[in-house]
Design brief:
alpha+beta, 5-stranded mixed sheet, globular, 11 strands, 332 residues, 11 helices
Length: 332
């Protein structure tokens, strides 16, 4: 594979960005009257103003082609955790407390056993996030879909004077990284293409490959809420998904980020790069590469923030700093 390995595998990130921009433009053109939207489009979640003090945060996301790994293994009990994680991890990036979620399960044909396994994962994810799943939809779409698709939408509340969007970030502020559990729920089209010739029971990673690929996405809600409720000043929160650390650029501050001490990279990423011939640059543009979430705090709060975060993630550390200059990620 070349540096365009992801596109060759079937996903064009550039085309996706253009399509999203077209969708956002069309929505903006069709909007009339006064908007309750608090943030510009493009952040992890958005906030709708309820009154002068309170906002409701909303987001939606799905599991993606990780579901094809679950299908190949006949194991559906963890993908519900991924569905919850992809939503609530985005929601907390605006400083909101997640409250509830609804799910959408589209299937080729209804299978009670599969639905029960998906539900088991959704329940486990909801418990980890401290939310309720209050409803959902199961759609039988045999003419449209093969297998199944799983997505959801979550909401929470945030005091408008406590909104976290990155506006307070200044050059020199430390960027703290929290470890991922693996691929999480992004880049699976490339991962599956690169590993197509590796059996799912291959144990070169110390356990069966299929088990490593199905490792659920970590849910960062509880430790981040603890941090938000502490005396630490939280200036930015970033869920590291597709696009890797470039997700820091969703934060609204006019700064770049220098990453000089990244977290350890789990071996599954090295295997994907090696087997797929994927360059290091493209690996960093597609995957989280071992860092699933970032927190930006002022320098004087670094020690306090790390003390709290390491109670949950001993590997958490400062991975870089906000910096003057163009809005880009600079790796050393």
């Amino acid at each position: 594979m070349s540096d365009d390995a992801y596109a060759r595998a079937g996903v064009s990130q550039g085309a996706g960005d253009i399509a999203v921009a077209a969708l956002v433009e069309a929505l903006a053109a069709g909007r009339s009257g006064e908007s309750r939207q608090v943030l510009a489009s493009g952040h992890y979640a958005n906030v709708v103003r309820i009154d002068e003090r309170t906002g409701v945060a909303l987001t939606t996301d799905g599991v993606g082609t990780k579901l094809l790994v679950a299908e190949s293994l006949g194991r559906w009990d963890t993908v519900g955790i991924d569905c919850v994680a992809m939503n609530v991890n985005d929601l907390i990036c605006v400083g909101a407390e997640p409250l509830a979620m609804v799910d959408y399960l589209a299937v080729e044909r209804a299978d009670p056993e599969v639905a029960a396994q998906v539900g088991k994962g959704l329940a486990a994810g909801a418990e980890q996030a401290g939310i309720e799943i209050v409803g959902g939809e199961l759609a039988q779409l045999g003419e449209l879909i093969r297998g199944l698709d799983l997505a959801g939408a979550a909401f929470g509340v945030v005091a408008l004077d406590s909104l976290v969007a990155g506006a307070a970030i200044e050059p020199g502020d430390p960027v703290l990284g929290l470890p991922s559990s693996g691929l999480h729920s992004n880049g699976y089209t490339l991962a599956r293409s690169a590993l197509a010739e590796v059996p799912m029971d291959d144990e070169r990673l110390g356990r069966p490959l299929g088990e490593a690929l199905l490792e659920p996405t970590l849910i960062y809600v509880r430790p981040v809420l603890e941090l938000l409720r502490s005396e630490v000043e939280v200036r930015g929160l970033a869920h590291i998904t597709s696009g890797g650390l470039d997700n820091l650029l969703r934060l609204v501050a006019d700064v770049g980020y220098e990453i000089d001490d990244p977290l350890a990279v789990p071996p599954v990423f090295a295997l994907i790069g090696e087997r797929g011939g994927v360059s290091g640059e493209e690996m960093h543009s597609v995957f989280n590469m071992g860092c699933g979430f970032c927190v930006v705090v002022p320098a004087e709060d670094e020690a306090g923030a790390l003390d709290l975060l390491r109670r949950h993630y001993p590997e958490a550390k400062r991975i870089g700093r906000a910096a003057e200059g163009p809005r880009e990620i600079r790796r050393h």
